[in-house]
Amino acid sequence: MINLKRAEKIRHLLEVLFAILLFSTQTILNAGIAISIMAIPLLPYLFFLLAGIGNYPEALDTEIWAMFYLDTFIVGRMIASIGFVVLLLAAAQLLWSRHKGVELITTGAYSMVRHPQFTGIIIVTAGLTVMVLTNSTANLFQTAGLWLIQILGYVTLARYEEWRLTKKFGDGYRQYKQRVPFLFPLKNPSRIPETLFTVFMAILIFLVLLFLPYDLIRIYSSRLFVD
């Protein structure tokens, strides 16, 4: 029994590490000395921050300020904020349910989608991507493509989790899956496999990221606060 509990904790830890690794590939705004420079992945960004190499932390202060306060990035910031709220609510419900001894959560945020924590992360990363591309579209396809690859990773991780939950809860979880959407709060057509529908939705968002009028967003966001 003890070995089973230990294996369960190790599995949860590996899932968390994988999710963090996915998020660490997210590009973020590089607003240092040259604000038009393209973004860099989050992982080396954090490495330089923690290592304190050169003058990088000084540029980091400027970048954080720009992400949170610069008017130009308000559209992406609003999207990311919505995702953060979703993630926070889902995490709070998960922790509270675990505290109460509830193993299969089907209410609250989990009645909207089966993996609201991943849904929140998807929205956050979409917002960060919009911020990066508002800053510069020099590597538009690469940046949006990296976001899409991340989402496919979260789909894979969520599917693995569902495989485990189906083994654990059986028909109870199968019935829950029939009632509640997967990652996006839209029921997929019955003739289309759910995973395929989810990938299609991710590709649709990817295309939106490619064709958003970033120049107009940058111009009118600044004018909105100047006026």
Structure description:
This protein is mainly alpha-helical and 227 residues long. It contains nine helices and two strands; from the N terminus they run H-E-E-H-H-H-H-H-H-H-H. It has one domain. It has a two-stranded antiparallel ribbon with strand order 1-2. The longest helix is centred in the last third of the chain and has 30 residues, at 140-169. Residues 31-40 and 53-57 have low confidence and may be disordered.
State the major sheet: 2 strands, antiparallel
Counted up, domains total 1
Instruction: Report Rg.
Output: 20 Å
User: What's the SSE pattern?
Assistant: HEEHHHHHHHH
Mean pLDDT: 82
Query: What is the terminal-to-terminal distance?
Result: 66 Å
pLDDT below 50 for ≥5 consecutive residues: which ranges? 31-40, 53-57
How much of the sequence is in beta strands? under 5%
Concise account of the structure shown:
72% of the residues lie in helices and 2% in strands. With 227 residues, the chain is an all-alpha fold.
Blueprint (SSEs and pairs):
Blueprint: H1 2-24, E1 27-28, E2 40-41, H2 42-51, H3 56-69, H4 74-100, H5 116-135, H6 140-169, H7 171-179, H8 194-211, H9 214-226
Antiparallel strand pairs: 1-2
Helix pairs in contact: 1-6, 4-5, 5-6, 5-9, 6-7, 6-8
